[in-house]
Design a protein that fits this description.
The protein is an alpha+beta fold. The chain has one domain: PPM-type phosphatase domain (Phosphatase 2c, domain 1, 4-Layer Sandwich), CATH 3.60.40.10. The protein has nine helices and 14 strands. Helix 1 runs antiparallel to helix 2. The longest helix is centred in the C-terminal third of the chain and has 28 residues. The chain is globular. It starts with a strand and ends in a 5-residue tail after the last helix.
Length: 424
């Protein structure tokens, strides 16, 4: 557990647990510059056997730290710099893996904050949650088969954590081909907060529980986050996943009852108070008196009302009036996604180890053969259309054939290798 405080902006916390897994393959960092009011949060969930996942996620956070130090805590072009971080990490992960004869991969969710704006990128199923005044504004959409099923209405969002296909990824860093990450940005207010996490956390934690963490009092936030991580580990069971969470808490909002209010607002609907017995009796009396008065007034009027003269039926009927046709509204189907243009490159499914109580992932009609242990499968017979995130840019072209010399941001590879160390 680590903590970073900002004077007038955000407070930052990060917590991680290995859980019952034999190895910690998650990595996360929170870097802040109090002078400029900027921060960089990065979380990665490693994928691959033979310590490949640990290598990939640690290489990601190492490169993010190098970028932060080189730019002195300020990214001139945040969206481009975050996308470049993903591509450089992809190339370095492949380079390290080729030396060991393995194929390491990692998810990524990265957030860069300024006093007025937030920028983020993500690839895989690690998520970013954006809250405002105790309410969830948005979350990132996973690059997974299960996310497509949710968007098409085949699976409910609340059932994602226990679905047998939860571990089939369509995109990550590492592997033969680089696929550009999805990105987003937002104007922020002093009432905004963010939470970044791996799937080991969001699968077992409700959004209202996350809101309670984001808007917790400063003195309680650290303990609440540690409890939430351990609670997620317990819910995952004896064969559960690693858990990593990074939180950007709004420094201005630090009220003792804020967390409870955020959770209540997210889960409880307002209930209208039932009328009292006295109010009911009063309403009944008013209704009876009103009815009696109308009866006394209307009855004489109807009795003495003169008979109405019948109209002349032989009169010439009026000319018909043309009535314009009324447009028929067409309701869009919520379960049918809009047509998509074919992607430039076919995503590579990657299979993550299943959590406890969840049957192994079944074979699905993916564009490739069923993945095994999140390794790269062979090409399949029939591709399917994969919907993209609204913010996802066009996928970048594959890196140049010469993979032995990866790109970086004016940093020698030797310096990176010297600085690499296991995550705590």
């Amino acid at each position: 557990m680590s903590q970073s405080d900002a004077k007038d902006g955000f407070r930052f916390l990060i917590s991680s647990s290995q859980g019952p897994r034999p190895e910690q393959q998650d990595s996360g960092i929170c870097l802040s510059n109090d002078v400029q009011g900027t921060a960089l949060l990065v979380v990665g969930d490693g994928v691959g056997g033979r310590s490949g996942g640990r290598l990939a996620s640690q290489k990601l956070t190492q490169l993010a730290t190098e970028l932060w130090e080189e730019r002195k805590g300020s990214l001139a072009k945040p969206a481009e710099d975050l996308a470049m971080l993903c591509q450089v990490a992809h190339e370095h992960i492949n380079s390290e893996g080729s030396k060991l004869g393995i194929s390491p991969r990692t998810t990524i969710v990265a957030l860069y904050l300024t006093p007025k704006q937030a920028f983020w990128v993500h690839s895989g199923d690690s998520r970013l949650y954006h809250f405002r005044e105790g309410k969830l504004v948005e979350r990132t959409e996973d690059h997974s088969l299960l996310e497509i099923m949710v968007q098409r209405g085949a699976v409910k969002e609340e059932d994602m954590g226990s679905h047998p296909d939860q571990n089939t990824l369509l995109q990550s860093l590492g592997g033969e081909e680089f696929v550009a990450p999805s990105s987003g940005s937002a104007e922020i207010t002093p009432d905004d907060g963010f939470l970044l996490c791996t799937d080991g956390f969001w699968e077992r934690t409700k959004p209202e529980e996350m809101a309670a963490l984001v808007f917790a009092e400063a003195a309680e936030a650290k303990g609440l986050l540690a409890d939430a991580v351990e609670r997620a580990v317990g819910r995952n069971g004896p064969k559960g996943d690693n858990v990593t969470v990074a939180v950007a808490l709004p420094a201005r909002i630090a009220l003792p009852a804020r967390a409870a209010a955020a959770m209540a607002a997210a889960t409880v609907m307002p209930v209208k108070a039932a009328p009292t017995r006295a109010a009911l009796d009063r309403k009944q009396k008013i209704t009876l008196l009103s009815g009696a008065f109308l009866l006394l007034v209307v009855t004489p009027i109807l009795f003495f009302w003169p008979e109405e003269k019948k109209p002349n039926t032989a009169a010439t009927p009026a000319a018909p009036v043309a009535i314009p046709p009324r447009a028929i509204p067409v309701e869009k189907s919520a379960s049918t996604p809009p047509p998509l243009s074919p992607p430039q490159a076919q995503p590579v499914p990657v299979e993550k180890p299943p959590a406890q109580g969840i049957p192994p992932s079944r074979e699905l009609p993916l564009p490739t053969d069923p993945p095994s242990d999140r390794s790269t499968p062979a090409a399949g017979p029939t591709p399917i259309a994969v919907p993209l995130h609204p913010f996802q840019p066009e996928r970048a072209k594959p890196a140049e054939p010469n993979k032995n010399k990866p790109k970086d941001f004016s940093i020698r590879d030797s310096s990176l290798e010297d600085r690499s160390k296991p995550a705590e």
